[in-house]
Design brief:
With 199 residues, the chain is of the alpha/beta class. The protein is built from 6 helices and 8 strands, in the order E-H-E-E-H-E-H-E-H-E-H-E-E-H. The protein has an 8-stranded parallel β-sheet, sandwiched between helices. Strand 1, helix 1 and strand 2 form a beta-alpha-beta unit. It is globular. The two termini are 18 Å apart.
Length: 199
């Protein structure tokens, strides 16, 4: 089995050459990534992005979305995201409050890859405004929109790491990026994304 590659849409990934590397992995992407590259599995928890993805020349064989939206789409292309592998009482434990990035990571982990690499999971914005490759485009916030609070994403990704202790996760980002404390587990390693470029 190929290692997994989960691609978020944080702006750090604009520095990476995905076309050179993606064939070495089973790839998992989020939302509008299909405007630029074809991935093996796409996660769209926004119904508008499911609609867009189905008309894209890069539409993958499988798009995963929320159970709530599945009934709007016929055929086998649209599937449901995995059930959460744990139960919790906090708002961020509610499946409806999970974002596409954490769900894409959960999907990859549920496919039993021994090794999963992550890119574009920036979490934080370097400005006061939204950090996303696709800002100011259809179905996305305008570029002047305030930065999104990443606290839910941080907690949700940490739960994936915790629930899959036998999977080795590698988080690539810029050298000065700070990995959340809750991600610093035995099965999680941070790498400078320059190593991804040269790998």
């Amino acid at each position: 089995m190929k290692p997994g590659l989960v691609i978020g849409n944080g702006e750090s990934r604009k520095l990476l050459n995905l076309n050179r590397s993606i064939d070495n992995y089973t790839s998992y992407g989020c939302n509008a990534i299909i405007r630029d590259i074809k991935v093996d599995y796409l996660v769209c928890v926004d119904r508008r992005m499911v609609k867009e993805s189905l008309t894209s020349p890069n539409c993958p064989n499988q798009i995963h979305t929320r159970q709530d939206w599945k009934r709007y789409f016929t055929g086998d292309v649209v599937a449901v995201v995995p059930d959460l592998p744990y139960e919790g009482n906090n708002r961020w434990d509610d499946p409806f409050h999970w974002g596409s990035g954490p769900y894409a990571l959960l999907l990859a982990a549920s496919h039993s890859h021994q090794n999963i690499s992550m890119i574009g999971f920036d979490l934080y914005s370097e400005t006061k405004h939204v950090n996303n490759v696709y800002k100011d485009t259809p179905n996305y916030n305008p570029k002047q929109h305030r930065a999104i609070d990443p606290s839910y994403w941080i907690k949700q990704v940490a739960k994936v790491f915790e629930c899959f202790p036998n999977t080795q996760f590698k988080v690539y980002n810029k050298k000065d990026w700070s990995m959340p404390i809750s991600w610093k587990l035995d099965n999680v390693k941070f790498e400078d994304q320059e190593k991804f470029n040269s790998g």
